[in-house]
Every structure is written in structure tokens, then in C-alpha cells.
Amino acid sequence: MNNYEQKYNFITQQQQMLLDWLEYCYIQDPNYHFSSVSSIYYDTPTLDLYWEKRNGDYLKSKVRLRWYAKLQELEPNQDVKCYLEVKRKYGAIRNKERLELNISAKQLLVNPFEDDEIISFPSMAYELEYFPQGLLVPTLLIQYERYRFIDPKSSSRIALDINICCKCANEKYIPGIPPIFLSVGVLEIKGEHQEMLNSLTPIADHLTKMSFSKYGRCCESLMQPFELRV
Q: Which domain holds residue 123?
């Protein structure tokens, strides 16, 4: 899919107020209104994809393994439906493609950075016509909760992401010590428009439009001194 993506930050203390407004204005996504989201992000050993984001490159890429199941509620050998996703941004325009995969809950729970199958998944990105410049390795596990809505007027899709945290990191490539809990949430709007929806105007003072990456912010929190964070 190709469309525009807008992102707005807000402080976590405002998340309930924002959620109440979205519930009032929009239609709950009929299939996936709420879910827990877990993602293993891949990067090169020198973190080239992180630096694309931090340097503000016009072309940016993300590669991740994503799932929605709560692993603690599953049997260790039970299969988990996952998605290998490649997300590319060209300025404000995004393109996301993914492959459906299955892997056991145990592999995701027990040191996924050392699991041979998880390590090998980026090789399948070629099926999505993504050709990285170097080897991709698993670096971070990031989790959050997501509420999804649909704007009936514009057909835009709206997501509210809260309780964002980095649960663990690959110590071979990321020197910081997790867990990291972000003090902000993210409101995402995906659709044909590049400007804030009029229906969000009453809460606009609580939102800050900015380019935001959960992966980038977690890497930054783990690696950078406070005065260099963006």
C-alpha cells in the first residue's frame, strides 16, 4: 500500500483523554480495534537503518518481524503467526509490504536474537524486492499497545500507540541496558491527506507533529547521552 503517514507525539499523561476523543469521533476498526504489538527490528551491525532515521534521510527503511499474540498465554511449541515487514518511506509517502510466517512461541520468548531461524528471516526480504546494502541482524524487541479507528469522512486510518517499551536488545550491537519505557505515545494517521484532520482540531494543542520512529527513539535512549537526544 502507498499513502501518506502523519505522526503526532503526546505525553503519556494525556493518553486517556486522547483515546476518549478518538472513541467519540471515529469508528472503531471492526476487525482489530485493540491489540498488543511486538516487533523484532533488524538493522546492519553498524545500525545503518537507525542512522537513516537520525540523519533525516529522504529514503528510509525498516525491517521487522511483527506479531500480535501474547506469548505468555501460549504453549511453548504453539505456532505464532508473524509478519516479516519491509517499510519504506520516500519523504512523507510510505510503502509497506509483508510476508506471513509461522514460528513457535518458545523461539520468540527464549533469546530470539540467537535463534537461527529468526536471524535468517531478513533473507526473505528479497521476495518483497528489498535489497539491503549489508547483512541484517536482529537488534531490538519493542512492544506497545495499539488502538485503531477509521474516519468515516476521509477513510483515513488512525492508530493510537501507548505504553511503548524496548523489552530487550542485542548486546552485540546495542550497548545500552533495557528495558526502556518511552515517556511519549504516538498518534498515526494514514491516508490520502497530508494535513491534520479537522476532527482532531479540538485536541491539536496536545499533539506535536513530528517524524517519529519507535525503533529510532529506543535506539537513541539506549545509546545516546541525554543532551544529544532528538
A: 2-192+199-223
